[in-house]
Every structure is written in structure tokens, then in C-alpha cells.
């Protein structure tokens, strides 16, 4: 057991024995570190474990507090996907959801869409307006094949906070993170080869695997700390896995942050088998803890990690500005990017680069972390009130999506169909698997400035559940 796990276990015992009363303030990170002779990061990791287990809550600028006594929500158990490589299916389901965007709806839970109404985005919009007005020619000519140099310089600064030591020339700008993932898959694997993925995993990544004619090997994943390293090793002993595609920091759809020592173990396993890791870090900057968690890329001393991200979740998806730090695969990634879509539009890159340089990006992130954390807590409280006791829910440590596991007698696909008639749009769980598992699960976007409408929608969903039981087999 690691030091942070030992400390978490000791604190958990003290809470359960009543040494700390419900709603009482816990010792500060610095105080606990001094008392137990451990590092600040060890205490932070221990508190993160207790927060995931809903024993404590973090309050911005106030510290950590023991949770109030209430009906607990169980976390999803470790998944049990098929133990063999599979062709990815369900494109029709994903397409139907994508085509449904923009229809009149009372409440849209289905898309992982950030808050784009915040006043902290105004400087970025102003910058884009000024560039379009005064430098329109910059948006009409070819840009640099790797992306705007100024933006890439800012990316080197941003990734330093995630433990990386990268230069501007180490980045390739893409049209969002979806293109980044697609390019990376084609750079590291040939058609017919196998890619290990989390289960459940992001449906966009699954479809990128399908488009590259690769096979997905789903690895058991825990909603607390991510992909099972032991199960991954067994799979790699059995199958010729070519690459690992993983979202370890604020995972989509479950929202967990893989502990640092587990990230290191994952990287070392990839080294042992000499395979690539495609790391999707699109939500990493909006992890609730600050400073943000380190990436897998921070351990990368031989260039095998292809770090992918974009500003689609931190700013807005319409800018279509993503990027890759491809390590040893830079030349191949640059070539694939060039032949697939050439250069990316310049003006959004210039505006975002300026926004970061002038401090607007960090101010926006700070506001969003607080907003999303509060929205998560409201959503969990509503689920606690309205849904059956056997419902299991992930506990996101960042971002704005969570994973709900209904009692297995319910059909989330039927629920999505019934809900649509009531103007509520859902993302059923079967899209987050290569083969349609998780039919009793849903992914929710939990942010909305109108909490009342979301509360009413969740109440409606709970009332529809009795109509949505699975047919007897």
C-alpha cells in the first residue's frame, strides 16, 4: 500500500470513528504533511481518495470538510468487457445522436459541451473580432504546416504545468482533438492491428479506431482510478497490442483522475512491451484540483507518448483548435495531418495564442473549475433524490460529464427514446463500448446555468424509468 493510501485509510478510520464530526473542517494539507512527515502531494492524493469516496468535500479557498450524513451513492464497479479484440460498431447510433444536435429540446444531457456563456470568454471573442477586422489576410493564406508558432509557444508553457518539457517545434496543431486522435492512430498502427482502450471509453475515439480499420481491445476500468494495469498486462501477454489509447486525467465518460503512480506504471508497461501510448488530455486543464495533475507524457523519456488535446472543452468546440505532441512520431504525424487536411485556420489560433499569453485562459479556467465543481455536486444531489437506491454514479474530479449505471433491469436506450419525446436528449451507454455494452448506463453533461430545468428533467427521467425495463430474455 502506498503512503497516500495508508494516510487515506487512517483518515477514513478517524472519520468513521467520529474523530471528525460531519461538516467539520479537516486539517490543512500543509498541517497534515507536517504531522505525518509526508509530502504535500501525498496529502493531496489522500484527500482526493476520500473525496472520490464521498467521505469529504472540498470547498474552494476554504479547505476540506467531512461530508454531511446522507444517503450514499455507490460508485460503478470495475467494468468487465469482452476479453478479445473486437471490431467497433454502433456508428449508426453515434450518427443519430450527432444529427439530433440543435433540435428543440427542454434539456440536452448528451453532448460534452462546455459553458460558453461565461464573461471570462469576452476577451477571446474581442480578440477574434479585432483580428478578423484588422488582419483578415492572415485568415486567408496558408499557415505553417505545424500550426501558428505563437500558439505553439504558448502550448509549451501550458504543458509545463502538466509536467512536460516541450518546445514549440514539438507540437502539431490539428482541427480539434478528434482529428488529433485519428491522426495518431494512423501514425502508430496499421489496418487490422489492435489498440487497447478503456471500457467504457469515449465514442469518438472508438469511431476513430473503426475508421482506421483497427480492432479495439477493451480493458477493465475502475471508476475511481482508471484502467486496470494488471488486466492490461494480461491482455498484452495474450494479444499483439500495437498501442494504448487512454484518457487518464479527467476521463470521459467517468471523470476520474488516474493516480500518479498508476500513470507511471502504465508508462513503464508500454516501455516493457515497446508500444505507443496515445494520451487524450482534452479535459486535463479543467481538473478541479490545482495545480492540475501531471500527464503520462511527463514520464516520457523516449518519445513513445503522443499527447493529444484541444480547446474544445476548455473554451469552445467551434474554434476547432487541437494539437498533438507526438514525440518520436512527429514526422509521420505531420505527414498524415498534411495529406488529410493540410493546414488549420489561422485566426482562431492567433486569438487563442493571445488569450493565453495575456492571462485570459488561466482566469477562465479558474472560473470554470469552480462552476463545474458546483454543478457536479448539484447533479449528484439530484440523482441521490430522484433515482433508485441501486443506481451507481461516477464522481468526476474535473470536467463536466459523469457516468450513471442504472439497475440492470432498466434499458437506457428505451429511456433515451421515451425522454426524447419529452424534450430530454440523452447519451445511452452502449455508444461508449466497441460492441454495445453498457445498455443500462448513461453519460450526462451536468452543467447548465439553469439548474431548475435540469432538476425537472432528472425528475422526469426517474418517472419514466418504470416504462423502460429490459425485455425478458
UniProtKB/TrEMBL annotation:
<dbReference type="InterPro" id="IPR036388">
    <property type="entry name" value="WH-like_DNA-bd_sf"/>
</dbReference>
<dbReference type="Pfam" id="PF00392">
    <property type="entry name" value="GntR"/>
</dbReference>
<feature type="domain" description="HTH gntR-type">
    <location>
        <begin position="1"/>
        <end position="69"/>
    </location>
</feature>
<protein>
    <submittedName>
        <fullName>GntR family transcriptional regulator</fullName>
    </submittedName>
</protein>
<dbReference type="InterPro" id="IPR051446">
    <property type="entry name" value="HTH_trans_reg/aminotransferase"/>
</dbReference>
<keyword id="KW-0238">DNA-binding</keyword>
<dbReference type="GO" id="GO:0003677">
    <property type="term" value="F:DNA binding"/>
</dbReference>
<keyword id="KW-0805">Transcription regulation</keyword>
<dbReference type="InterPro" id="IPR015421">
    <property type="entry name" value="PyrdxlP-dep_Trfase_major"/>
</dbReference>
<dbReference type="InterPro" id="IPR036390">
    <property type="entry name" value="WH_DNA-bd_sf"/>
</dbReference>
<dbReference type="GO" id="GO:0003700">
    <property type="term" value="F:DNA-binding transcription factor activity"/>
</dbReference>
<dbReference type="InterPro" id="IPR015422">
    <property type="entry name" value="PyrdxlP-dep_Trfase_small"/>
</dbReference>
<dbReference type="InterPro" id="IPR004839">
    <property type="entry name" value="Aminotransferase_I/II_large"/>
</dbReference>
<keyword id="KW-0663">Pyridoxal phosphate</keyword>
<keyword id="KW-0804">Transcription</keyword>
<comment type="similarity">
    <text>In the C-terminal section; belongs to the class-I pyridoxal-phosphate-dependent aminotransferase family.</text>
</comment>
<dbReference type="InterPro" id="IPR000524">
    <property type="entry name" value="Tscrpt_reg_HTH_GntR"/>
</dbReference>
<dbReference type="GO" id="GO:0030170">
    <property type="term" value="F:pyridoxal phosphate binding"/>
</dbReference>
<dbReference type="InterPro" id="IPR015424">
    <property type="entry name" value="PyrdxlP-dep_Trfase"/>
</dbReference>
<dbReference type="Pfam" id="PF00155">
    <property type="entry name" value="Aminotran_1_2"/>
</dbReference>
